[in-house]
Design brief:
Elements: E1 10-14, E2 19-24, H1 29-40, E3 43-49, H2 55-66, E4 70-73, E5 80-85, E6 96-97, H3 102-112, E7 118-122, H4 133-141, E8 145-148, H5 149-152, E9 154-160, E10 168-170, H6 176-186, E11 193-196, H7 204-211, E12 216-219, E13 222-225, E14 235-236, H8 241-253, E15 257-265, H9 272-279, E16 286-294, E17 297-305, E18 309-310, E19 313-314, H10 326-334, E20 336-342, H11 355-365, E21 370-373, E22 376-382, E23 393-395, H12 400-412, E24 416-420, H13 432-441
Parallel strand pairs: 2-15, 3-14, 6-7, 10-11, 18-20, 19-20, 23-24
Antiparallel strand pairs: 1-24, 3-5, 4-5, 7-9, 8-9, 11-13, 12-13, 15-17, 16-17, 20-22, 21-22
Length: about 450
C-alpha cells in the first residue's frame, strides 16, 4: 500500500491477505445538503451534527452563506449551527459556485427561484456539462425567469425569482434532485404544487419538510406540496450508504474479510444496493446490527464478511434506489458467478463522468469481462477465484465514485493497481484513503 498523502494525484493498492476493521463513513450527503438548505429557509436556529465534510456539501454551505445564511462550526467536527432566515434571503454580490455538485445547483435553484432578486449560479467544467433544463422547465412554469447556455440547458444559470405559483408537473424521470427543486420552490408558491413521479426516488426532502412542520401529501407516486413556513430542527446526519457501499463490496468479495461500518442510514429509498446483494446471495454475510431511528431516518451498523455471489439482472424501479452505487456494484459483479445485467440506467451517462463508459473502460483495463449497453452494462462474472481482476493503471476521470470503485477493485485484484486522480474521492469522502489504510492496519 502506498504511503503517499491523501492529496497525492495517484495511489498504489495491492490485495492484502486479509481485510478488516471498524469504521464510520461520512454523513449522508443527500441529507447533509438538505439539512443545511431547509434549515436555512426555516425560522429559528438549528444544530446539524454529523454533516458530510465532502466538497459537494461545502459548496452548498458556501452558496447559502453568500445569500445571507449564518452557518458556523459548533464544536465537534461535522457540527454546525444554522440560523434560519425564513423566506427572506439576501441577493448575492457575486456568482454562486456549486463546484462539482449537481445536488447543490439543482436544489439551490429551487430556493433561488422563490427569491425576488437576481442570482447567477455556476460550477466546475463537469457540472457545466450536466443537464439543467430538467429543473429550468418546471421552475419557469412556476413563474421564475431563468436563463442558461444552449437554450437554458446548461449552467451558468441566471435566476430572477419571486412570484411563484403552484403547478401540476409530470416528472420525466425519477430524480430526487429535480423533485426536490420543485418542492423547495413550491414551499413559497401561491397554491399547491402537485408532482407526478414515474417511480420512487430518494424521499429525504419529503421527510425533512414534514419534520419541520410542512405538509407533503403522498398518494402512491403522486406528491402534493402545500406552501409553508418551516421551523428549524436539529438534525443528526446518519452515515452515507453510498459511501458504505465501497466497504460492503470489499468485504463481500475479498476472500478473508470482516468489516463493521457503524451508523449507516437505511432509508428505504436508498437501500436498493442492499436488496441487490441479498439477491446475489450475500445472506448472513451482510448483517444489520443495532437497528434504530435517528432524526426520522432508519439507521443500523452493517457487518460484512466474505462470501460468494452470483449474477443478477437489475433494472426498472430499483435503479433510482442504487444509481450512485453502480460503479462499485460492477466491481462486485466481476466476482460473482454468471452474468450481471444492469439496465434502465441511462442517467449514469450524465453524472460527473459518463459512468457507464468510464466504469466499463477502467474495469476492462483490470481484465474484467464487461461491456456497455445504451442504458447500462453487462458484466460476465468469473466467480471468486484469485485472478478475476489483475492490477493495472486506472483513471478517476474526475469522478469521485469511480476513483473509489477502482480503489476497491485494487483491493481485490491480483498484483498492484494504481488509481490516478485518487484525490477526487474527497468530493464525497474526504477520509476515504485513510479509512482504506485503517482496514489494512487492523489486520496486520
Amino acid at each position: 500500500m502506498s504511503t503517499a498523502p491523501p492529496s497525492s494525484p495517484s495511489r498504489d493498492i495491492s490485495r492484502p491477505a486479509s481485510l478488516g476493521g471498524i469504521l464510520s463513513v461520512p454523513g449522508d450527503k443527500s441529507i447533509s445538503h438538505r439539512s443545511l438548505i431547509l434549515n436555512a429557509i426555516a425560522r429559528g436556529d438549528a444544530l446539524v451534527q454529523g454533516l458530510s465534510g465532502g466538497d459537494d456539501v461545502i459548496s452548498t454551505m458556501r452558496c447559502l452563506q453568500a445569500i445571507g445564511v449564518n452557518i458556523k462550526p459548533a464544536g465537534a467536527a461535522g457540527s454546525y449551527t444554522v440560523k434560519g432566515q425564513g423566506a427572506q434571503l439576501t441577493e448575492p454580490s457575486d456568482i454562486l459556485d456549486a463546484g462539482n455538485s449537481g445536488t447543490s445547483m439543482r436544489l439551490l435553484s429551487g430556493i433561488l427561484a422563490s427569491q425576488p432578486f437576481i442570482s447567477v449560479i455556476t460550477g466546475d467544467g463537469s457540472l457545466r456539462s450536466r443537464p439543467m433544463q430538467r429543473i429550468v422547465d418546471p421552475l419557469k412554469q412556476m413563474g421564475a425567469q431563468i436563463m442558461g447556455r444552449q437554450n437554458d440547458s446548461f449552467a451558468p444559470l441566471v435566476v430572477r425569482g419571486g412570484g411563484l405559483k403552484g403547478i401540476e408537473y409530470d416528472l420525466p424521470m425519477a430524480s430526487a434532485q429535480v423533485k426536490s427543486a420543485i418542492m423547495l420552490a413550491g414551499l413559497s408558491a401561491t397554491g399547491d404544487t402537485v408532482i407526478h413521479q414515474p417511480a420512487l426516488s430518494r424521499d429525504h426532502t419529503e421527510r425533512m419538510i414534514t419534520a419541520m412542520g410542512g405538509k407533503v401529501e403522498e398518494n402512491g407516486l403522486d406528491l402534493v406540496i402545500h406552501p409553508a413556513n418551516l421551523n428549524a430542527v436539529d438534525i443528526t446526519v446518519p452515515g452515507d450508504i453510498s459511501s458504505a457501499a465501497f466497504w460492503i463490496v470489499a468485504g463481500l468479495c475479498h476472500p478473508n474479510a470482516r468489516i463493521l461500518v457503524r451508523g449507516v442510514g437505511l432509508n428505504p429509498s436508498r437501500t436498493g444496493i442492499m436488496d441487490v446483494f441479498q439477491e446475489m446471495g450475500a445472506g448472513d454475510s451482510l448483517q444489520l446490527l443495532d437497528r434504530r431511528t435517528e432524526g426520522g431516518e432508519p439507521v443500523a451498523d452493517i457487518l460484512v464478511t466474505s462470501t460468494e455471489l452470483h449474477g443478477v439482472e437489475i433494472g426498472g424501479d430499483l435503479i433510482p434506489r442504487l444509481l450512485d452505487e453502480v460503479p462499485v456494484l460492477a466491481v462486485a459483479a466481476c466476482f460473482a458467478t454468471g452474468d450481471t445485467v444492469i439496465r434502465d440506467a441511462a442517467e449514469l451517462r450524465v453524472k460527473e463522468s459518463d459512468r457507464i463508459a468510464t466504469t466499463v473502460s477502467e474495469l476492462t483495463l483490470l481484465g474484467a469481462s464487461i461491456e456497455a449497453t445504451g442504458d447500462g452494462m453487462v458484466i460476465h462474472g468469473k466467480g471468486s477465484g484469485p485472478d478475476v481482476l489483475n492490477g493495472a493503471d486506472c483513471e478517476s476521470h474526475n469522478d469521485h465514485r469511480l476513483a473509489m470503485a477502482m480503489a476497491v477493485a485494487g483491493l481485490l485484484a491480483e498484483g498492484e493497481t494504481t488509481v490516478h486522480g485518487a484525490a477526487d474521492a474527497s468530493v464525497s469522502y474526504p477520509d476515504f484513503w485513510q479509512d482504506l489504510e485503517l482496514l489494512l492496519q487492523d489486520v496486520r
